[in-house]
Amino acid sequence: MLNWLFDTKKKTEVNLGHIGIDIHSHILPGIDDGVETIDQAVAMVRKMQDLGYSHVVTTPHVMWDCYRNTPDIILEKLEEVRRACLVAGVHVQIDAAAEYFIDEHFNELLSKNQELLTLPGNRLLVELPYSTPLLNTSENLFSIISRGYQPVLAHPERYTYFYSDPSIYKKLIDQGCELQVNILSLTGYYGENIAKMAEWLLKNNLITFIGTDAHKIQHLEMIQKANKNNWLTKYSFGNKKLITI
């Protein structure tokens, strides 16, 4: 669970070795809105190693209107990145899951028991629309759980339509969902209100995992310098336990 995330008195740069594993990133080239080339992918993994990560489970988008990724596409790209990192001398364990947008295609995959790429512990990383809430979020979570998966909701702090009733976050957890906050949210990258909500979720012990959600090297560079911000304090998270699952 979360220790001192950063200590500005002792460090000039962030070291995330105590987290160990990043469970949300977009480092497979050319298949979503993340990196575009294999060289960019290697640079991202190298930077993650510099940040202290020993294990990366990257999560390309599966969003049928935009990114029609399948397990075959994702795993083929994963092998390309693994080989390139090996040649480059970058020694980080790299695996792949996916970030599934809850849409009709996702529900079809679920209902037909199609192969889904999961985080450690059979966890399924899912995301919601940013602008308009789903009317059947509870039903979707029930469907995920009933098929043996543990749902992990990506960046709940970015769904601003929850802000009018923050108790929804506790309700999601009570329904069996785990929540994953973005480190970038805490840096203020997405705006002040999202940063405040990320802090609120952490302070109220509603967050299980913390992830980079890095799409490009600049995101990791921002995280590396994040100890210069005043929001850094001690929270708890569960990333570390995933390394042993």
Automatic annotation (TrEMBL):
<keyword id="KW-0378">Hydrolase</keyword>
<protein>
    <recommendedName>
        <fullName>protein-tyrosine-phosphatase</fullName>
        <ecNumber>3.1.3.48</ecNumber>
    </recommendedName>
</protein>
<comment type="similarity">
    <text>Belongs to the metallo-dependent hydrolases superfamily. CpsB/CapC family.</text>
</comment>
<dbReference type="Pfam" id="PF19567">
    <property type="entry name" value="CpsB_CapC"/>
</dbReference>
<dbReference type="InterPro" id="IPR016195">
    <property type="entry name" value="Pol/histidinol_Pase-like"/>
</dbReference>
<dbReference type="InterPro" id="IPR016667">
    <property type="entry name" value="Caps_polysacc_synth_CpsB/CapC"/>
</dbReference>
<dbReference type="GO" id="GO:0004725">
    <property type="term" value="F:protein tyrosine phosphatase activity"/>
</dbReference>
<dbReference type="GO" id="GO:0030145">
    <property type="term" value="F:manganese ion binding"/>
</dbReference>
